[in-house]
Every structure is written in C-alpha cells, then in structure tokens.
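S2.1 Query sequence (Outer membrane protein beta-barrel domain-containing protein)
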Amino acid sequence: MKVLSIIAFVFVFLTVSKSHSQELELSGGLTYKYLLGKQRALYAPVFGFEIGAARQEQAPFSADMIAWGANVGVFKMHRTDSEGVGQSQQIVETKAIFRYDYYYNDYFSFFYGAEAGFSFTTLQSDQPMISSENNSTQLFTRGIIAPNGGINFEINRYIALYYKLQYDLGKYFGPQPNWGSPSSKWNHLTTQTAGLRVRFW
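Output structure tokens follow.
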C-alpha cells in the first residue's frame, strides 16, 4: 500500500509539472540484481521489477533531453548457503532519478545518469523464526547511490524500449541484516533492467 501511495504522489506531482509545457514519462521494467563482494556467496541473483515516473525536458544548448523523477523497485533475495536455507530478504527501493538522453538518430538514444535513495528490507523465512532483533518485524534501511548508463530504442515519439546497466553502492543506517559472516554495513551490486518508457506530450 505504501508503494502505491508513493507512486500516486509522484504521478500527481509530475502531472502538475507537465503544465509547464514539458512531458511526462512513465516507465516499467524487469530487473536483475547481482551482488558483488563477499555477500555474493550468501545470496542468489534476484529478479524483480521497477516502475517510475519522470519529467522530461529539452537540455539547454542542445537537442538532447534530460529527465528527473522517481522510481520504485521490489525484489526478493534468497539465501543460498546451508545455514540460510528458506530465508530471504524482501526489499523495496525508492530512489530519485536523473538522466541525460543523447539522441544518436531517430531510432536510438544513449543515456547516462544516476539514482539515489533508500532501500527498505524485511527478513522472511519458510520456517518459524526465533524472536530476535533479526525477525520479520524489523525494517532495515540502506542508503543507495547508483550511477548508470544504457540505450533507448525509440519506437516512436511516445514509446521506447530501454536497457540500463547500473552499479549500486549502499550502506545500512543503524542495524543491518546479520545472518552470519559477512555482516558489513556496506554492500554493492550490479543491476540490469530492460523495460518500456511511455511518454505523454
């Protein structure tokens, strides 16, 4: 429900912004996340999805475009080691986005940018969990900064397919999930996303 409220707020905000002769862009994609470092041995790569809304406007002094807005992603990351069988992390990410689109021709544009925000993690288990600080009632918060780049295939002025490659660097604020070593507050991963952008002029 909180995710839907965030999406509704972003949509209304950007729709109001559109009154300044700009355009609104909605996007959605399938996402594949892959942990790096020592945690790679504990958690399996994960599929999820992300949806976003952005305001697009022409870049100063060029025919390219810039976009800014927000997105929300939902993922479930499973433990793979023998001690963590049946345990997983349910993750919701909320991030602000900035993107610069360089138009190569009528069909392709390249983009680069960054995302920054927070992820909220709850622990889940297929087996009853002993009451502790690491149970399903606790919410773990992680700050994220994520540079990215990719390509758009412009079907027409309203619809584009996109592929995005992103590096996520994050740090937990306060307690962090601790199901054994490693338990560093820092972690990093790569994210690949393929999806659809829909624009309203």
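The chain is about 10% helix and 60% strand. The helical segments are 2-17.
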